[in-house]
Specification:
Blueprint: E1 5-8, H1 20-34, H2 38-47, H3 49-53, H4 60-70, H5 77-94, H6 101-110, E2 114-119, H7 124-128, E3 140-143, H8 144-147, H9 154-164, E4 171-175, H10 181-188, E5 191-195, E6 217-218, H11 223-234
Parallel strand pairs: 1-2, 1-4, 2-3, 4-5, 5-6
Helix pairs in contact: 1-2, 1-5, 4-5
The structure holds magnesium ion (MG).
Magnesium ion is lined by residues 9, 11-13, 175-176, 178.
Length: 237
């Protein structure tokens, strides 16, 4: 086999990207229970993404409290708890595997590949991860908020390789191109593949710094299996 490991992105790859409309509704609900102005809350939620994704806040409560302080509102503890619950429940709903994701991971494992994940995400994802059906199928997970690095920083890809016990050149990286992740993966020596599902409504998808890509592309997770078969047969993508 030309590759030993397949490293996946999470949002927009193994699960759908957040729906912008649903995300905005969730932020409005949080603002309502906190009695803060919804526009200010949504703006600051967006502005604190990098802090949230690099672990600057211990958890969702700290992030929410920080925004309330900046908006000069002091919510009651039960309101804060309810706002956090709204956010965590939203993330839980968002971690629903794409239709073909679990069967594809299972097949890749049966074919002898080891599986990694690199996700730019906030603290709810590692909190909820052990209860997702992905947990037993993915051998190494690297969450940006835990390692305090975001894609396309070379170190985040190298960390995944270390945990998987492989060299970057032995990895295929599959992602939807957010956070310039494909360029980052290629730069460290991984072989990057774009996933773009036909049903995604790009006007309603929450994608961070999506990049243009002229390299190999798949339109479903299951197509990774065929791509690998082709590579093993022909020697290149
Ligand atoms: Mg993504």
């Amino acid at each position: 086999m030309k590759y030993q490991a397949i490293v996946f992105d999470l949002f927009g790859t193994l699960v759908d990207n957040f729906s912008l409309r649903e995300h905005e509704a969730v932020l409005r609900q949080m603002a309502a229970v906190l009695s803060v102005p919804p526009e200010g809350f949504a703006r600051m939620w967006g502005e604190t993404f990098n802090k949230r994704a690099t672990g600057a806040f211990r958890n969702t409560k700290d992030n929410t409290e920080y925004i309330c302080q900046r908006l000069e509102v002091r919510p009651k503890d039960e309101c804060l708890k309810l706002a956090v619950k709204i956010r965590v429940d939203f993330t839980r709903r968002s971690l629903k595997p794409r239709d073909d994701a679990l069967e594809t991971l299972t097949q890749l494992i049966q074919e002898g590949y080891i599986i990694g994940l690199i996700s730019d995400c906030s603290s709810e994802v590692p909190l909820l991860w052990p209860d997702t059906p992905f947990a037993p199928l993915i051998h190494a997970v690297v969450f940006s908020c835990t390692v305090r690095l975001m894609k396309p920083d070379a170190r985040i890809y190298r960390l995944a390789c270390e945990q998987l016990g492989v060299k970057p050149q032995e990895c295929l990286y599959v992602g939807d191109g957010s956070s310039h992740e494909l360029t980052g993966a290629s730069r460290v020596g991984m072989h990057a593949v774009l996933i773009r599902v036909p049903y995604e409504d790009t006007s309603d998808a929450h994608r961070i710094n999506a990049e243009e890509w002229n390299g190999p592309t798949v339109s479903a997770v299951r197509e990774v299996v065929g791509l690998l078969d082709g590579i093993n047969h022909n020697g290149s993508i």
